[in-house]
Amino acid sequence: MFNSLHEECGIFGIYTKERSSVAVSAYFALYALQHRGQESCGIVVNDRGVFNYKKELGLVNEVFDKETLLKLGSGKMAVGHVRYAASEHATPQNSQPMVVRHIKGPMTIAHNGSLVNSLKLREEYELNGGIFHSTSDSEVISYAITEQRLISGSIEQAVEKAMYRLKGAYSLILMSPKKLIAVRDPHGFRPLCLGELPNNEGYVVASESCALDSISAKFLRDIDPGEIVIINSEGVRSVRTHCESKSNICVFEYVYFARPDSVIEGASVQQSRVNAGRFLAKEHPVNADIVIGVPDSGLDAAMGFSLESGIPYGTGFVKNRYVGRTFIQPAQGMREDSVKIKLNPVSEAIKGKRVVMIDDSIVRGTTCGRIVKLLRETGALEVHVRISSPPFKNPCYFGTDIDSRENLIACQMSIEGIKDKIGADSLGYLSVEGVSKMAENARCGFCVGCFTGEYPVDVPDEKPKDKFILKLSQ
Which is it for the CA torsion 313, 317, 319, 325, positive or negative? Predict the structure, then answer.
């Protein structure tokens, strides 16, 4: 899929037994998690209870350089965050990690996900005198925790009690002067894993295992839904009061969000996408000469389609890796050409061929239509589009910026109508059953509410206006 769906963010935390360059480790880990958010990033270093931090709008390599990392200093703990937000929410105030000053001591919080009751909680805290400086759910969560800290004996007890108030998706990393705490909501909507540094030097937590790989940390396990993991000088321990609900990780972590080299809940992301392509070939066979994928998440699904169908796999597009978040959109009359700057078809692979084009989703249909047009202009005889997920028919309330129903093409047209709109010769989507079994041997259930309208928790009748993210262009 291409410049359309976005996930909220990626989080990372590190605890070392001795003072070290934890900011550098956080930097490399955030680099590995950059795909989860490109709007802002930040690192907070805990040096003997003093929190030094840097967070700004921009990519990891734009915000941090060698001098900046040196200024953050050394310490035993650090928390990092990369964030995605729609343009109207991309402000310095929303950048994370969030640093909270409190009578019980400072606290840092990094959050991935979205609450379904954040507006209700925000209103309650504001009526009681609370002042909010951002629009993020993270600040709501910080209020819930600090409220409990006034009456609780420890920060983990405050977190445990606050979780009774929080509804929705939240993978959290919190840092107090002496503890690093990782929390996953009871349904486990968003991933979070625990790792160990080389030579038993300490521990790390991260959204994905690829972040652990980037700093040579050993993957230990996924943090369970509802689990609170506390890391301090005494080691690692867990609070499992909330570990009772059925796991329902967002299936789109496997379809698109996660990096292919990550392993989530025991299932390889790369192999899951290959499996999706295999199922897609079984469900929607076609006679063609070549199978191509739209970079990047469509590539593994295309390989699976090829393996199952016997149709040769080829490289159909070259992606411009140097088009970043600051890419200037052309004038309206040149809008159709903008996709060519980001994706360029490989003429020798496509010209005179019947092409199967694999992508991971269609949201509005605009970008998909432009890509199909590119293939035809390059000389494709036929273009058969296959999508490695079901049609989006419902908004997401748990951290994915799936648009409102009125802007989702699958809510406005039949599959035949979508096929005609994007200019394809045929169109096939993976079934809900297929996408639900793509993560082979995964130790979890899946949330597929954006496809079915059935969610693991009660959701509002419609997404609140200020929770909407409208940065969808596909």
Answer: negative
Structural domains of the chain in order of their starting residue, each with its CATH number = 9-245 (3.60.20.10), 263-467 (3.40.50.2020)
Q: What is the pLDDT of residue 463?
A: 52
At 427-441, the pLDDT tens digits run 999 999 999 999 999
Q: What pLDDT is recorded for position 342?
A: 83
- Relative orientation angle of helices 269-283 and 297-309, to the nearest 10 degrees: 50
Separation of alpha carbons 326 and 185, rounded Å: 34
Which residue numbers are catalytic? 9
What pLDDT, on a 0 to 100 scale, did the predictor assign at position 474? 33
Low-confidence ranges of the chain (pLDDT < 50): 1-3, 87-88, 325-335, 464-474
Question: CA distances (Å), 99 to each of 29, 45, 213, 413, 472, in order?
Answer: 20, 11, 27, 46, 31
197 token code pair: 């540094």
| Residue 44 C-beta-side C-alpha neighbours within 13 Å | 27
CB 13 within 8 A of CB 180: yes
The two three-digit tokens of residue 325, written as one number: 């978040």
